[in-house]
Structure formats: structure tokens, C-alpha cells
Design goal:
mainly alpha, Four Helix Bundle (Hemerythrin (Met), subunit A), 16 helices, 0% strand, disordered N terminus, binds protoporphyrin IX containing FE, transmembrane helix, transmembrane, membrane, Fe3_Rdtase_TM_dom
Length: 339
């Protein structure tokens, strides 16, 4: 009997959590929940009552709840981009010197190669946060109304933007830690000694290269600011923080600051590359360097964003989002529908 009561309580708790989760994602039920509705039982109280570990879920209920459904698309995208970039960088930085000169650069894989993969994934995911908004604006401009439904793939993508952003922050944080670990590596210390020896051989007193010093100071500083802004974006996406903001404040941070962060990340990569942009030696086996590939999508997103900010488009989009409908486009669509 006691056992049966326990099972019923477990089921109730699990169903309550599922219901709670569904309510959380359903704006209608979320908004309609007010102080007049009965309060849900205290979790701590239930815990004490049943002695049941809240992280355990009965087997029959397990299949009803999907695991991290909103993370599927962003994680798949991140994994695909990471794998392709990893293979590409290994080919250029490790396999190419091995095949051409027999040099063993396999030691580069754990840190140097990985630290090319991490920023590429991070900046691409960040660009993917803002790309669906641009596609949605293009749809609205094309349809001349906001009342026509977006395609399902775009809806799904729009709903996963928060997860794309959080993953971008995760990869950027790892990239920062990996980057800051560079001088700690033994390979770096040996290289430094070798450079010093070469300098003595060349009878050079000063190794200072002014433009290289400026390049590094600027790109590392921009990287740090970009990471700090990403952290701010991540913090404001926590429900308890976002709930304390007004819609305008939340939108300002997530949209304006996010795009600014993408811009900083792109300038960071541009300045990191510095004069390598015009160096043909960077094209190993006719392949472009990763920094060129990394900024491709962000550059497209930033350019589209600037185009949409032009007064002719901006005013039209604002009107459409306030409910205005383009009579020409609506009539055309109706005629086509009747045909
Ligand atoms: C504390 C923050 C950061 C530091 C210290 C930092 C440092 C670095 C360093 C040292 C490199 C050169 C890597 C190499 O040796 O190949 C680099 C490259 C790069 N970083 Fe950062 N970074 C930071 C934040 C960011 C952020 C927030 C982004 C973008 C969201 C970003 C995007 C890039 C990109 C795209 C490259 C070019 C990678 C390549 O293709 O070679 N970084 N960063």
C-alpha cells in the first residue's frame, strides 16, 4: 500500500513537472497563470513526503519526455561545423607539412588545431542566431504582410536562437581559455628559445615588430570585450533575469548588443589575420585559411543587417510589423489563390 502510494506520488510529480515544462513553453498558459490559481505543492515538501529523488523518473513516463528537444538542432549544427573545421584544419596544418616535407606537426592537434575549430564554431553559431531574423524580414517584405506563416524550418530555427547563442558563448569561452594557455605550452617555450637563438645568430638586438605588437594588442582586446558581451547576453537569457527586464530592454540587449558582439568577433578575426589577407602562402593546397571561412557567414549577416537598416527597408518593415499590409501584394496573392 505504502509502495503503491509512493508510485502514485512519483507519477504525479513527474506529470506535474512535464505539465510545468509545457506551461513554461506555452505563452498562453504561462500568461494566464496568476496569483488566484492554486499554488503548486512545494517540491521540497513532496520530496520529504515521498523520500523520492526528484531526478528519477519512472520508466513508463520516460519515453513520454523527449530529452532536450530544443537543443537538437543547435547541437547537430555545432557538431557538423566542428567536425568539418577540424578535418579541414588538420589537413592544412598537420597533413600538408607531413606530406610535403615530412614534418611532424601532430602535436598541434590538442591545442592549436582545436583552437581554430572553437572560434570558427562560435562565430558561425552567433551568425546563425541573427540569420533567421534577416530571412524572416525578407519574407515579410516579399509577402507584404506579417500575417502569412513562416515556413516550418524557419519557425523551428527562430525558436532555437537562444540555444544557438548559448552554444556560441560556450565555444567562445573555451576558445578564450585555450588562447590564454598558449604561453604555458612546452612547445611554445622551445620555440621561444629557438627564436632567441636565431636572433643571436643573426646578430639582432631587438626582436620588437611594431605592427605585430599592435595587431595582437588590438585583436586580443576585442576578443575579450566580445566574450564579455556574450556573457551578458547569456546571463540575460536566464528566465529569472529576462523576467525582470521589460520587453524593450530585453530586445535591446539581445538584438543590438548581440549584433554588436558579432561585429566585434568579426573585427577580432580580421585583425588577427592582419596582413595574411594578402599573403598567397596562406592558400595551402589551394584552400583558403580558416579565418577567411570563419568570417564569411558573419560578413553576410552584418551586410544584410546594414541593408535592412536602410530607410526604405526599415520603414517598410516597421509598418508591416505594426500590422500594415501591402494591398498590391495581398491582391496578387488572392488572385493567384483563386486561379
Ligand atoms: C578572451 C577572449 C578571446 C581571446 C583571448 C581570443 C584570442 C584569440 C587568438 C589567440 C586567436 C588566434 C588563434 C590561432 O592561433 O589560430 C583568435 C582567433 C580567432 N578568434 Fe578569438 N579570442 C577571444 C574571443 C573571441 C570571440 C568572443 C570570438 C567570436 C565569437 C572569437 C573569434 C575568433 C576567430 C573567428 C578567430 C580566427 C580563427 C582562425 O580561423 O584562425 N574570439 N582569438
Amino acid at each position: 500500500m505504502e509502495n503503491r502510494k509512493d508510485i502514485t506520488n512519483q507519477e504525479e510529480l513527474c506529470e506535474m513537472k512535464t505539465r510545468e515544462k509545457m506551461e513554461e513553453h506555452d505563452p498562453l498558459t504561462k500568461n494566464s497563470r496568476d496569483s488566484s490559481t492554486p499554488k503548486r505543492p512545494d517540491l521540497f515538501h513532496l520530496h520529504q513526503m515521498t523520500g523520492f529523488d526528484e531526478f528519477e523518473c519512472p520508466a513508463d513516463l520516460r519515453h513520454k519526455q523527449e530529452l532536450f528537444p530544443q537543443w537538437h538542432l543547435p547541437i547537430k549544427m555545432a557538431a557538423i561545423i566542428a567536425l568539418i573545421t577540424f578535418l579541414y584544419t588538420c589537413l592544412r596544418d598537420v597533413i600538408h607539412p607531413f606530406v610535403m616535407t615530412g614534418a611532424h606537426f601532430f602535436y598541434k592537434i590538442p591545442i592549436l588545431v582545436i583552437n581554430k575549430v572553437l572560434p570558427v564554431v562560435s562565430i558561425t553559431l552567433l551568425a546563425l542566431v541573427y540569420l533567421p531574423g534577416i530571412i524572416a524580414a525578407a519574407f515579410q517584405l516579399h509577402n507584404g504582410t506579417k500575417y502569412k506563416r513562416f515556413p516550418d524550418w524557419l519557425n523551428k530555427w527562430m525558436l532555437a536562437r537562444k540555444q544557438f547563442g548559448l552554444l556560441s558563448f560556450f565555444f567562445a569561452s573555451l576558445h578564450a581559455i585555450y588562447s590564454l594557455s598558449y604561453p604555458m605550452r612546452r612547445s611554445y617555450r622551445y620555440k621561444l628559445l629557438n627564436w632567441a637563438y636565431e636572433q643571436v645568430q643573426q646578430n639582432k638586438e631587438d626582436a620588437w615588430v611594431e605592427h605585430d605588437v599592435w595587431r595582437m594588442e588590438i585583436y586580443v582586446s576585442l576578443g575579450i570585450v566580445a566574450l564579455a558581451l556574450l556573457a551578458l547576453l547569456a546571463v540575460t537569457s536566464i528566465p529569472s533575469v529576462s523576467n525582470s527586464l521589460t520587453w524593450r530592454e530585453f530586445h535591446y540587449i539581445q538584438s543590438k548588443l548581440g549584433i554588436f558582439c558579432l561585429l566585434l568577433g568579426t573585427i577580432h578575426a580580421l585583425i588577427f589575420a592582419w596582413n595574411k589577407w594578402v599573403d598567397v602562402k596562406q592558400f595551402v593546397w589551394y584552400t583558403p585559411p580558416t579565418f577567411m571561412i570563419a568570417i564569411l557567414l558573419p560578413a553576410v549577416v552584418l551586410t544584410c543587417k546594414v541593408i535592412l537598416l536602410l530607410p526604405c527597408y526599415r520603414k517598410r518593415i516597421q509598418k508591416i510589423r505594426h500590422g500594415w499590409e501591402d494591398p498590391v501584394k495581398i491582391n496578387k496573392a488572392e488572385v493567384a489563390f483563386q486561379l
